[in-house]
Design a protein that fits this description.
With about 100 residues, the chain is of the alpha+beta class. It has one domain. Helix content is about 20%, strand content about 40%. The chain has a four-stranded antiparallel sheet with strand order 1-2-3-4, with helices on one face. The longest helix is centred in the C-terminal third of the chain and has 18 residues. It is elongated and about 50 Å long. The structure holds zinc ion. The site of zinc ion has 8 residues, from loops.
Length: about 100
């Protein structure tokens, strides 16, 4: 809904051609304090979602290691959100 407040935790939002939105949120693990481990883009009009991990496996000289790239995950989620918003014609679900 245009003008409606964003749900808590939504870091970016795209309006789809169908009038729904694609919301980007960070997914948090259960550590204390919680740490974001992934960026999730999810459409409010259809079941499409896309989760982008903040951790990537990188091949080094001798072994594979995990690197923390939250910025890259955000960018990937954004690209997905933008692409989905341009083609999704599903109407937003009515809110109760
Ligand atoms: Zn959609």
């Amino acid at each position: 809904m245009p003008g409606a407040a964003w749900p808590e935790g939504v870091i970016a939002r795209y309006l789809t051609v169908g009038g729904a939105t694609v919301d980007m949120t960070h997914q948090y693990n259960v550590l204390t304090p919680p740490e974001a481990y992934a960026t999730l883009a999810s459409c409010t009009g259809c079941p499409a979602t896309s989760e982008h991990s903040h951790y990537r496996m990188v091949w080094g000289m001798t072994a594979q290691r995990e690197e923390h790239h939250p910025g890259a995950a955000d960018r990937d989620a954004l690209v997905w959100a933008q692409a989905h918003a341009e083609k999704c014609r599903a109407m937003p679900r009515p809110t109760a």
